[in-house]
Amino acid sequence: MINSQQEIKLEFQRAETARAKNNEGQARVCARRAAGIAIRDYLSTHGNQPVTLSAYDLLNLIKEDNRISPDLKLIADHLTLRVTEEFVLPIDVDLLAEARIFCSALLKQKDP
Q1: What value does the mean pLDDT take over residues 57-83?
Q2: Where does 4-108 sit in CATH, by number?
Q3: Which of 27, 48, 74, 75 could form a disulfide with 102 if both were Cys (CB 3.0 to 4.6 A apart)?
Q4: Confidence class of residue 111 from pLDDT cuts 50, 70 and 90?
Q5: Other C-beta atoms within 10 Å of 105: how many?
C-alpha cells in the first residue's frame, strides 16, 4: 500500500517530467495534486475526514484553517490561481517550488 508521502513524491516526479517536456500546465496540475494529498493527510490526522478529493477544493478549504500560517495560506492561494487566456499564471511564481514547501510544512504539522 502506498502512503501519502510516496504519493506526494510521485506527483512531484510527474511534475518534473512535465516541466522537462515544457508542459507547465501539467506540472501545475501535479503540484496541486501533491498539495491536495498533503491536505487530506493533514486533515485526517486532525480528525477531519475531507468530503472531497478535489485538490482545488481542498486548497480552498485549507485557507480557512486557523492552524495554517499566513505563508501557507498564500501558497494555497497561488496554487488556486486561474491562468490567463495565454495559459500562464497572472503572477511570477514557481508553483512546484511552492508546493514542495507547502507539502513539507503540512507533513511536519501532522501531529495534533
Answers
A1: 94
A2: 1.20.120
A3: 75
A4: low
A5: 16
Q: What's the mean per-residue pLDDT of the chain?
A: 91
Q: Cell numbers 480552498 label which residue?
A: 60
Confidence tier at 89 by pLDDT (50, 70, 90): confident
> 69 CB contacts (<8 Å, ≥6 apart)?
105
pLDDT for 47: 83
Nearest partner of 36 among 3, 7, 78, judged by Cα = 7
Structural domain boundaries in the chain: 4-108
Q: Is 37 exposed, middle or buried (0-12, 13-18, 19+ CB in 10 A)?
A: buried
Quick one: which of 23, 29, 35, 86 has its CA closest to 62?
A: 35
| Number of residues written out for the chain | 112
**What are 28-46's pLDDT values in tens digits?**
999 999 999 999 999 988 8
* Distance between CA atoms of residues 91 and 42, nearest Å: 28
In whole angstroms, what is the distance from residue 45 CA to residue 109 CA? 9
